[in-house]
Design goal:
By secondary structure, this protein is an alpha+beta fold. The chain folds into three domains: 110 residues, Chitinase A, domain 3; 111 residues, Chitinase A, domain 3, CATH 3.10.50; 109 residues, Chitinase A, domain 3, CATH 3.10.50. Strands 1, 2, 3, 4, 5, 6 and 7 form a seven-stranded antiparallel beta sheet that branches. A hairpin with a 5-residue loop joins strand 15 and strand 16. It is globular and about 80 Å long. The termini are far apart.
């Protein structure tokens, strides 16, 4: 074949193209360095919301060391990680980096030790490790926003110092003690930063007014409202968490709540079990029980899924909780520590459709802790009906 100048030119062009392809195949990924020190490469740009502090972010991820050792993967658990941005719930590098990317983004992050676990060993992660994350931002749930108050809103104040205003009036019945109430709320500090929200969890709180299941400010404030009301409560610390505070709430902190009354109903009347003339039995641990109705069939074993109705009383006869009142049975797994030890032991003695009264000593209940309306060192009485188990 005769080689012409044109043939030589074509061969040179093919050779140059081949060299470029080879260089591109071996070229290192291009990472951008953020001013805080982490590096990142976006593999897919999302078009969702870019999160800001207090937003809930859901992220799927794989975590690897520099030697490609896989440390953790949310994909294996089939559940993304969920956290509040800027609240210190995750390592510093995540709090900084994830505020840069919109929802739906897929990105590789390389975090230096000072933005990860520093000089600490964390599980399989050695001290001073550089971490590599392959992230996909699955969802961004914006933080709840405070209610917008009208220019002429009116604030009422009670004798105890509670203040409230109704933002939007409902048309339901007035709330009274003894009612079962479902409430959605967002709790704010005085600078209007969020410390808690049932809206974020998408689940209202379920309370019975007058049972001391909530702070004093709520007990008083809710009785000023109706079903369907949206309101703001300004709660002085004396009616909130007092001198000690709790969780993220510092001592002596006044709080603000935006609340919405979702449901309000009269409770079903509870009739205590009739135990007169029946024997009181005891176990070796000190649990006492009275068999009101023996039921039938086999006994549940550890790991059984139990469904019961119950009413809990203090020794003065005051009800502190009742699934019967709520018209909702309660389900748990026996022997897994999901309930007090008195229940784990006592319900293993029951058969289907049986009714027992349990007298639970403090060490098999809540011990020295105060839990809602239950005082420290309280002996508790439960009327329990075992509806079913699997």
């Amino acid at each position: 074949m005769k080689i012409t100048d044109r043939t030589i030119l074509l061969l040179l062009m093919v050779g140059l193209f081949s060299c470029n392809v080879q260089r591109n195949l071996t070229k290192e990924p291009v990472f951008i360095e953020h001013e805080s020190g982490f590096r990142y490469q976006i593999t897919k740009k999302g078009n969702g919301i870019t999160p800001v502090d207090n937003d809930i972010v859901k992220v799927h991820y794989k975590l690897m060391l520099q030697d490609s050792t896989l440390i953790d993967s949310s994909y294996e658990r089939e559940e993304p990680a969920s956290f509040k941005l800027g609240a210190g719930q995750v390592i510093k590098g995540w709090d900084i980096a994830l505020s840069e990317f919109p929802g739906g983004t897929e990105v590789t992050l390389i975090l230096p030790p000072d933005l990860a676990y520093g000089d600490r060993t964390a599980g399989q992660i050695p001290a001073n490790s550089v971490l590599i994350f392959y992230l996909k931002i699955m969802d961004v749930i914006p933080a709840p926003k405070p209610y917008v108050l009208s220019d002429n809103y009116i604030v009422a104040e009670t004798e105890s110092g509670l203040k409230y205003t109704i933002v939007e009036k409902g048309s339901g019945p007035k709330l009274t003690k003894g009612m079962r109430v479902l409430v959605h709320y967002t709790g704010f500090f005085e600078d209007m930063s969020v410390f808690d929200s049932s809206f974020e969890r998408k689940e209202p709180v379920d309370i019975i007014l007058g049972r001391s299941m909530v702070i004093k400010g709520w007990e008083e404030g809710l009785t000023q409202l109706r079903k369907g009301d949206k309101a703001r409560l300004w709660v002085p610390y004396e009616l909130a968490y007092g001198e000690q505070g709790r969780g993220p709430i510092p001592p002596r902190t006044d709080l603000i709540f935006d609340i919405e009354i979702m449901e309000a109903d009269e409770m079903k009347k509870v009739e205590p079990f009739q135990t007169a003339g029946k024997d009181t039995l005891s176990t070796e641990t000190g649990l006492q029980y009275i068999i009101v109705n023996g039921g039938r069939g086999d006994y549940p074993v550890e790991g059984s899924v139990i469904t019961v109705h119950y009413t809990g009383y203090l020794t003065d006869g005051k009800i502190f909780d009742s699934s019967v009142e709520r018209r909702e049975s309660f389900t748990f797994v026996l022997g897994q520590g999901q309930v007090i030890s008195g229940w784990d032991e006592g319900i293993a003695l029951m058969r289907k459709k049986s009714r027992y009264r349990f007298i639970v000593p403090p060490d098999m209940a809540y011990g020295q802790r105060q839990v809602g309306p239950i005082p420290p060192n309280a002996t508790l009485i439960f009327d329990v009906e075992l509806l079913d188990f699997e």
